[in-house]
Specification:
Keywords: Oxidoreductase. It holds the Pfam family adh_short. The protein is of the alpha/beta class and 234 residues long. It has a single domain, classed as 3-Layer(aba) Sandwich (Rossmann fold). 43% of the residues lie in helices and 15% in strands. The protein is built from six helices and seven strands, in the order E-H-E-H-E-H-E-H-E-H-E-H-E. It is globular and about 50 Å long.
């Protein structure tokens, strides 16, 4: 796809991978709507990078619908949804798993992503064209100790991606799954303070590059799934 003049939604776009991706898309001439829960931070980032901000929590269906209402009023179309919003929740072992942790994490990582994709898919079917990028994790390809809730939510996102690929391919819709390994972001930090860059760790810009490079492939082909590792993180 051509990034220039295409319209994008980036959920969780006020920090980390979402911000880096939105910024790079705008630098390439894309029109970008970003969502986030913190109004002040969202509006500050939107002003900084030139995006359209919509305060929204993807776990709330009314906020999802508001996002698409604003999108259509401002841009009149959508070319690509980037499902980036996600949370880690609490790291619990099997002996202490809590119902609320599952609800909190799945509401964003699974249900929120699905609701956003549902509305995008409706537009894409009418257009007979579109792109969805789901930001998952290497935790969605291999579980780890104390990661039952988070890891399983990303396994679910991987499964949903494959379902949507099967359902939407006939409408010329590409659905791409991106699995970053550890990235130095504010992920897992309740205060949402960005971690400092570490020389041998992945940065948000590496994931943004992966997302955009995958999208820039000619529309006749697509990458179903891509995993990004740091070369030598130790």
């Amino acid at each position: 796809m051509q990034i220039k003049d295409s319209v994008f939604i980036v959920t969780g776009g006020s920090a980390g991978i979402g911000k880096a991706t939105a910024k790079m898309l705008i630098e390439k001439g894309g029109k970008v709507l970003i969502t986030g829960r913190n109004k002040e931070r969202l509006e500050s980032v939107a002003k900084e990078i030139g995006a359209l901000p919509v305060q929204a929590d993807v776990a709330k269906e009314k906020d999802v619908m508001k996002t698409y209402d604003v999108l259509m009023k401002e841009f009149g179309k959508l070319d690509c949804l980037i499902n980036n919003a996600g949370i880690g929740g609490k790291w619990e072992d099997v002996f202490s798993l809590s119902n609320q942790n599952f609800i909190d994490v799945y509401s964003v990582n699974v249900i929120g992503a699905a609701l956003m994709a549902r509305e995008a898919a409706k537009l894409f079917k009418l257009q007979n064209y579109g792109n969805i990028v789901n930001i998952s994790s290497t935790a969605g390809t291999k579980g780890f100790a104390n990661g039952t809730v988070y890891s399983s939510s990303k396994f679910a996102l991987r499964g949903m991606t494959q379902c949507w690929q099967a359902e939407l391919r006939k409408y010329n819709v590409r659905v791409i799954l991106v699995n970053p390994s550890e990235v130095t972001t504010a992920f897992g930090n309740d205060e949402r303070v960005e971690r400092p860059e570490v020389k041998n760790k992945l940065r948000p810009i590496e994931i943004a590059h992966t997302i955009i490079s995958s999208l820039e492939m000619d529309d006749r082909g697509f990458i179903p799934e891509v995993t990004v590792w740091a070369t030598n993180p130790f």
